[in-house]
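P.,

For your records, the input lines for the assembly:
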Amino acid sequence: MDFGHDKTQESGFEGRRTVILALLLFAMLSLVIKAVYLQVVDKHFLQKRARQQYSDIVSVPAYRGQIKDRQGEALAISTPIQAVILKPNKVEDWGKVKEIADLLGVSTKKIQAIQRHSANKSFIYLKRQVNPDLAEKIRLMNEAGIGFEKALKRFYPAGEVAGHLVGFTNVDDVGLEGIERAYDAILKGQPGKKKVIKDGKGHIINDLEIIREPIAGQDLTLSIDNRIQYLAYRELKKAVIENQAAAAALVVLDAKTGEVLAAVNQPAFNPNNRQRLNAKYYRNRAIIDVFEPGSTVKPFVMLAALDGGYVGVDEKIETHGFYRVKRRLVRDTHNYKTLDLTGVLKKSSNVAISKIALRMPAEFLWNTYQRLGFGVSAGVGFPGEARGRLPDFQGWGKFEQATLSFGYGLSVSVLQLARAYTALADDGVLHSVSLLPRKKDDQAERVFSIENTRRVRRMLEAVVEKGGTATRARVPGYRVAGKTGTVKKSEGRKGYSKHNYFAVFVGMAPASNPRYVIAVMVDDPSAGDYYGGLVAAPVFSKVMAGVLRVYGVSPDREESMPVLLMKNETE
Amino acid sequence: MKISFFEALDIRPFYPDKTLLGVCAALLLMGYLIVASSSLHLGVKTAGDVFHYPLRQMIHIVLGLIGGGLICMIPMSVWQRYSRVLFIIALVLLIVVLIPGIGVKVNGSIRWISLAGIRIQVSEVVKLVSVLYMAGYVLRYQQQLQKSDYGAIKSLAPFILVGALLLMEPDLGSAVVIVVIAMGILFLAGARLKQFAWLILAALVLVALLIWVSPYRWARITAFLDPWADARNTGFQLVQALIAFGQGGLFGLGLGNGIQKLFYLPEAHTDFLFSVLAEECGLLGVLLVISLFSLLVWRIFAVGRQAEQAGQRFNANVAYGMGIWFGFQAFVNMGVNMGLLPTKGITLPLMSYGGGSMLVMCAAIAIVLRVSHEVQEKQVTQAKGVVRWKSA
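Structure tokens returned:
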């Protein structure tokens, strides 16, 4: 068949074929026109829309500064963690979400509540501060309704040992307690900002540009020595358990610089895990809480009397065991009869110290206390730092003046008390106290004469000697000076408790040239013993022994020294 | 005497339309690249394997090529003889898919039957069979069609059944494509214009009615008219597709660099593959694909014309039907992607991800190539004046 004759074979509707083909090709042409419109004319509008949906500005967390002890050991560091986010409106499989919640320790009930009441929300923190390993595991479970957010979490290597002091931050990395709060402005960095590309599920897939670099916070070095802090923590905890005490606090000061080397408290808490914890555990009692210092203030009264000439160095005081002041009685536990000045402190006679105190004008005694920093904040810059109470002398009666001389009627914090003792330790020079390391104390102030201070310090050495109230405060190889206090707890208007006490001991060593002051307060020991000399003094002894060993201080107590070493003894 | 390689091997030579073959190869290749690019992240998410989808699509294509190769060997006369049987089988499949437990439900529609791990959309098979059935039908009832007052309307009766079954899935898109194919073939076969006009009018009214009574279809229409009005819900898909086009601009972001496929565009590797191409390959890629489909349609029609001229009327009708099918479906898919048409879940022939679609499309192309082969073969044998079988 000839090709030319093929026309005869056709249906006779060739025109229609052309029409259909033309229609189809015209349709294709319309596509071309629309494509040109979208990709050339409307391009800018569409690209703007694209940027609106995929680009986002996110915050780049800034590293919070580290908190370190004086040795450079970390007390608080920031570590990267993840926050797990639930997007209820994008959840594909609620069963999977429940599995994930289970891994995170979030209750199924909570998930059910979300499923029921907020299923169309787009952002709920399922759990913040999730460690990266767990977050990665959850990421691999591939649930569309689960997202992640990078963050930084504070980690406290020293745990509960320094918990009260260092404090902690909240989930937003803002300091809530302790040093974290006090120095928040220095520690916190400035978060940066960056522009990112997000995919349709809100995951960041690429960084576009850094708008602002995050500025890391500054590191902060404390005067705290972690070794001492740990030692003190351990001994104090042991004492609280042995004595079944309600609480306790201890402060170690450098007597020459006023630096706080340790400040520990019981009960303690672990800042790394604060779940189910009551705020009362957070209190840094050593700095925030006050108590009546009792007999521990007697050395100051003695020293003031000596400096003011109200008592002679060789004077003897008659005690009789009680002393009538106006219509009330000042009592001693025993009748010590006649006491020399050393005996007054060694036996801690209320009667004798009252008699001495009542020789001086009220203003003079008030002045002494006031210059020692009682009633004024110690100024270490710790949040909620206590001022204590020192009533104005114009309201004092004779009896009040007497009780103030043996430490009732005024209140101080452990830190304030330890600070006052620096005046005894540093030959009459009172030091300011600091939580930051320093070589020298620029705010040191002479409050007592060198001669009388040394005299009283020698009297305080007798306290730990045989017949004194605190023989258990001794540190082998060193001369120790200190004073006990056994204070009846005030019960407000009802007066003083008959069964509840603060057991206190404040001391220093080596007494020949004191380097360290330690104040120990045990609140309500209830295992039997409650005397400062029996409850607080042993803690002092152990901690002081540790401090002296850690800093390699030469022993100054000759009788216990090996013969060879005695020649090197310079102090 | 010089003998060809095939003659020497005593194998019957195959004469495909080389342009058509080239166009199809180009579409398959481009489609595969975009499918791979648009499904890598999805594979990670759903199967934990980047190559989950690319690997499967590769298998689909290989299976499609093997199937196509086999179909090339089937003489058109076989299709002509069995076209009615095949149509009945297709109807049965359409009923079977609706039986609960057999059909696979995706996004609220039951459209698929799972066969040996490959999901086949029944409507794709029905489209292919409809072409074959209609091509035979218009030949058998040519007189009636051209002369009778109701010829055209009568011929469409089986398609009312097909359409009804498809709407039960529901799959309005496929119903429209099948009706367009059937009517196209009717038109080419010489259906009377007056009847034809009534048919078109009736079809339009029916479709409008179906859209009007169904809230989700109506929502798609309003979203189509103004996608930005509710860009987060009803207009979301279209808005994302449009943004992909805008993002692409003239030259595109580059293969693999698209953002829209990253969970913005739903069905990026299937129905909205063209948008991914637009974003990554730009206007350049879009024009290339439109041109390839235009070329495809034009070549298929050319093959049909050759067959018609060679007196192979059934073959010619089949080719026209396939041309209308590919042309219309490609147009609808691309039009939907660009917001030129309301959103319809319809694949881009030879390009979209999907085993069933790929197998059926390859089979359809293979049939067109067979048509072209039979034309060429006839010419060759006639020109040489020899019998079809050359003896050794």
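Two observations worth noting. Chain B touches chain A through 55 residues (CB under 8 Å). The first strand of chain B starts at residue 103 and ends at 106.

Regards
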